[in-house]
Amino acid sequence: MPDVQNQQILLASRPTGMPTPENFRIVQTPVPEPADGQLLLEILYLSLDPYMRGRMDDAKSYARPVEIGAVMEGGTVARVIRSRHSEYAPGDIVLSHSGWQRYALSDGENLRKLDPALAPISTALGVLGMPGFTAWAGLLQIGQPKPGETVVVAAASGAVGSAVGQIARIQGARAVGIAGGPEKCAFVRDELGFDAVIDHRAPDFAQQLADACPKGIDVYFENVGGQVWDAVFPLLNDFARIPVCGLISQYNALPQAEPGPDKLALLMRDVLKKSLTIRGFIQREFAALRPSFLREAGQWIEEGRLRYREDIVDGLERAPAAFIDLLQGRNFGKLVIKV
Amino acid sequence: MPDVQNQQILLASRPTGMPTPENFRIVQTPVPEPADGQLLLEILYLSLDPYMRGRMDDAKSYARPVEIGAVMEGGTVARVIRSRHSEYAPGDIVLSHSGWQRYALSDGENLRKLDPALAPISTALGVLGMPGFTAWAGLLQIGQPKPGETVVVAAASGAVGSAVGQIARIQGARAVGIAGGPEKCAFVRDELGFDAVIDHRAPDFAQQLADACPKGIDVYFENVGGQVWDAVFPLLNDFARIPVCGLISQYNALPQAEPGPDKLALLMRDVLKKSLTIRGFIQREFAALRPSFLREAGQWIEEGRLRYREDIVDGLERAPAAFIDLLQGRNFGKLVIKV
User: Fold this and answer.
1) Which residues of A are less than 8 Å from B255 in CB distance?
2) Domain-located, residue B318
3) Are residues A113 and A18 both part of a single domain?
4) Which SUPFAM superfamilies match (chains A, B) (predicted)?
5) Residues A258 and A173 in one domain
6) Tens of pLDDT along A259-312?
7) Contact in structure between A9 and A320 (CB atoms under 8 Å)
């Protein structure tokens, strides 16, 4: 392919607070040649997810940071265009982790073949991919909602939150969602069927949440932190479970302590008095359960009980701006770049 | 018994911060007469435990507060002296929850007969009672220490902490204790056999703890809070488990937020990045496991692998002062009043 160039988006510098377009750099490079045992992949879809903000920092975490000058990482759906690997043929569609670029090599490890007849291939990055699995595993393994219990989740129109609420309802629990703005709230209530939805921009947000949870909160699926946590905290019931999968409101700034009682001391007091469970997790630790997830979620989608919305942005070069929008809550549904 | 009077210690007023002797009132009352189906108990030993501080407050918790003017509650070992109940005879020794008094009626519910030949009867309030069971259940059910892991516990010479460290070692883990003063530290290291012990009064306490935990902390059994938590927190490993059974440093004052980063935000960030589990509990929720505990702990005591120390104070009237000492860490071993 002498005329075709690879396009890659690199981490140019580490952000302070909210990332800016200057933290990224787009470069053109030659399309690489697969060696023996390798494949050349053409990326079709790139997933953009809040966790990527953490990879931009040079801090200890459950995953290594992206190096300065390296390709931004990310989950991708790709087509095999050349293969020197016995298990893959040109035309195969695979789930890979090829990052923010048009072409990538693979040695076949950590690839999963996708069947385009089963579901739109982009769903492998959303409702049937990492976000859907995060929702399923965190809610069922840690949250363990029982029939009649109240489950609260924020970013309820997003990739993870939308699945959390719907799966809670499938378990017989009551789902209360939190979203930003009337359009997202209407979607969560009317399309996803949550029992109640609250706009976190409302001035009386905390009171509205309390009114929507008359029997308290049994499971709070934490993916945002900040003011939502403050409103949820006093409503937690005895033995409430709090799977913590994200803290998007905190990724770009570390809040300073406020005057008044030490919130950490208040938290620990209630952990003790209410026998609370707070459990951080990443979906990877539940990897052995992925086949069960794919079977269950696939069936729920087929039955119309698990719906999803994708926010597809066209063009790899728009990934940095779309990612910054994501961190500011401006996407609507699972954000995917059509490369 | 015409000459004998009952002696009772009542809650006279609710404390603000650390209790004072004025919060208690000692009264003489007639010894009650058992009705049909009732027993009259003579209290031999009264257990004093940090959780009782919570019962003195008028705040929502997992247990109802003691009413003003009511007898302070507490676990007791008692002798049946009159019985109008078919299952108990005079002379029987029982574990009861009769509170801070010399005589009490019982309808036979929530009593457990003790065999004085098996172990000293006071141990039913300590290593074989609620504190021992709290240690066993919290450590094994929530902490789940694995061989080679590091377990940290404070108040390590106390009723719960001493059992936590020894049971951790029986599981093959490394036990690091925290205690106050050279005498308690020597006991924890030399008598209880902890792998390391740190004096929390040392000016370089946090550094000493870090040095004693070169591979980080996998289980922190939380029973004190405050400065111990601050030293433990940065040492927690990925997937660390934190059973929370008490916060004795916080019972008497709610700390004000300090300037600087919001400790709650820092906590939640690490919960997420390290996949931490924080789980408040009370031993009652594990009640079904008590027979297993009694079997295991009884055997460990017999084998000399689970040691205990009692701090026996003579005279019911000394209970208020002894309880205040307990909250200030001045007891040494499981505090029991010999009534």
Assistant:
1) 261-262, 265
2) yes
3) yes
4) GroES-like, NAD(P)-binding Rossmann-fold domains
5) yes
6) 778 889 999 999 999 999 999 999 999 999 999 999 999 999 999 999 999 999
7) yes
DSSP-H helix ranges across chain A: 52-55, 130-137, 159-170, 182-186, 205-212, 226-232, 263-273, 290-302, 319-327
Residue A1 has pLDDT above 60, yes or no: no
Which is nearest to A152 in space by CA: A93, A192, A186, A196?
A196
Number of domains in chain A: 2
Inter-chain CB proximity B62 and A276 less than 8 Å: no
Identify whether A293 is part of a domain: no
Tokens of A150: 């109240």
Mean pLDDT, range A225-244, rounded to an integer: 95
End-to-end CA distance of chain A: 18
Distance of CA B209 to the CA centre of its chain: 23
Percent of chain A at pLDDT > 90 equals: 84
Interface test with A, best of B269, B282, B284, B285 (most A CBs within 10 A): B269
Q: What is the mean pLDDT of chain A?
A: 93
pLDDT: which is higher, A146 or A58: A146
Q: Do B278 and A274 touch (CB under 8 A)?
A: no
A95 in a domain, yes or no? yes
Q: In this structure, is residue A176 part of a structural domain?
A: yes
* Residues on chain A touching B62 (C-beta within 8 angstroms): 238, 273-275
DSSP B23-40: GEEEEEEEPPPP-TT-EE
- φ, ψ for residue B142 (rounded to 5)? -105, -50
* Closest CA–CA distance from residue B270 to any residue of chain A (Å): 8
- Contact residues on chain A for B284, CB-CB shorter than 8 A: none
Residue A60 lies in domain: 5-126+309-338
Q: What is the ipTM of this complex?
A: 0.88
Is residue A251's pLDDT more than 90?
Answer: no
Collect all residues from A whose CB is shorter than 8 A from any CB in B.
54, 59-62, 222, 225, 229, 238-239, 244-247, 250, 254-282, 285
A256 interaction partners in chain B (CB closer than 8 Å)? 259-262
Return the minimum-mean-pLDDT range out of A250-259, A281-290, B83-92: A250-259
Q: Which of B220, B222, B289, B282 is nearest to B249 (CA)?
A: B222
pLDDT at position B1 over 60: no
Q: Quick check: A261 and B254 CB within 8 A?
A: yes
What are the pLDDT digits (tens) for B215-253?
A: 999 999 999 888 899 999 999 999 999 999 988 777 776
Q: From the CA of A2, how many Å to the nearest CA of chain B?
A: 44
CB contact under 8 A, B256 and A261: yes
A263 with B262: Cβ contact below 8 A: yes
Handedness of CA A262, A263, A268, A271 (dihedral sign): positive
Same domain, B153 and B105: no
Instruction: Measure CB to CB from residue B61 to each of A225, A273, A281 and give the nearest one.
Output: A273
Mutate to test the interface with B, among A273, A283, A286 (most CBs of B within 10 A): A273
Place of tokens 């931004």: A72
Q: Which CATH number covers residue A268?
A: 3.40.50.720
A54 and B273 within 8 Å at the Cβ level: the answer is yes
Nearest to B280 among A59, A61, A275 (CB): A275
Across chain B, what does the average pLDDT equal? 93
